[in-house]
Specification:
With about 300 residues, the protein is mostly helical. It contains five helices and three strands; from the N terminus they run H-H-H-H-E-E-H-E. The radius of gyration is 82 Å and the shape is rod-shaped.
């Protein structure tokens, strides 16, 4: 509203200025020149010649002018301003019309500018609102996508835990079955082992008796083959390591701890060689190639 009023005031001021200039320009009349009737005489013709009077000019008789008609009584009482020339009125009207058109054009331009600015502001607000709506939609879409991803992750984690639990239960069941089988096999093996041990103990007892008897026979033969040296004393105790081959032949003799002197020790070794071949082992006892004999003569 203020912009339109300002444009109207400027237009009115411009119209007044144009009208004042045009009035001042038309008010000044051009200088009128008077016609002079004269005869042009050159200076050459004037020298030495007498000045003659100009011929008399006869003027035409004046034209009679009829007096103007007397105006009516009402018109004689009010003096009337002389009418303006038609071209001056036309120019004034044209100037006023041009000023009005200029003012109207400026008002139209201002109005158009205001409308354009309002339209631009409306479009900017619409664009901002659209951007805000799009941002809100994107935020909602992202929130929905995050919720879906979190739900999928939760389901995947629950599935993984369930699978791990099932696998653990399967492993525990397999371990329990394995332990049950091992316990059963161990019990069976223990029973077999007990039976085997009992059988072995019985056999060992029998073999131990036979081996003891066989060792006693070997010791007795070596003692009989011993030739007692003069330095031998009572309480002689020597350990012999005798190596034999099947058939009882002695192939090597080593002396272990012995409390006799060198002559006694040598006599014990010689006695083991003289006792070859040694008595054979019992029928139910295995052959032993390495024998340990405790040599303890009683006399």
């Amino acid at each position: 509203m203020s912009a339109g009023l300002s444009v109207a005031l400027h237009g009115a001021l411009l119209a007044v200025l144009i009208y004042g200039w045009w009035t001042f320009h038309t008010a000044s009349h051009p200088v009128q020149t008077l016609a002079i009737d004269a005869t042009v005489v050159s200076a050459r013709s004037v020298r030495g010649a007498p000045i003659a009077a100009p011929p008399a000019r006869t003027l035409p008789p004046p034209t009679p002018v009829s007096p103007p008609a007397a105006p009516p009584a009402e018109e004689q009482t009010v003096p009337r301003a002389p009418p303006n020339p038609p071209d001056e009125a036309l120019k004034r009207e044209q100037a006023q019309a041009a000023a009005q058109r200029l003012a109207q054009e400026r008002v139209a331009e201002e109005r158009q500018a205001e409308q354009a600015q309002a339209e631009a502001e409306r479009k900017a607000q619409a664009a901002a609102q659209q951007k805000a709506e799009e941002a809100a939609e994107r935020a909602q879409a992202e929130a929905r996508a995050r919720a879906v991803a979190e739900e999928q992750q939760r389901l995947a984690e629950a599935k993984r835990k369930a699978e791990a639990q099932r696998e653990l239960q399967a492993q525990q069941k397999a371990e329990a079955q394995r332990r049950a089988r091992e316990a059963k096999a161990l019990a069976e093996n223990q029973e077999d082992l007990t039976q085997s041990i009992n059988s072995d103990e019985q056999a060992l007892s029998a073999r131990s008796g036979a081996l003891a008897t066989w060792e006693q026979l070997i010791t007795a033969r070596i003692t009989r083959a011993w030739i007692r040296p003069p330095t031998a004393r009572a309480g002689l105790d020597c350990t012999l390591f005798v190596t034999q081959v099947p058939g009882g032949e002695v192939t090597n003799v080593k002396l272990g701890p012995c409390n006799g002197d060198s002559a006694v020790q040598q006599s014990v070794i010689d006695a083991a060689y003289r006792a070859s071949p040694l008595p054979p082992p019992p029928a139910d006892a295995p052959f032993v190639a390495q024998l340990q004999v405790e040599f303890k003569p009683t006399d």
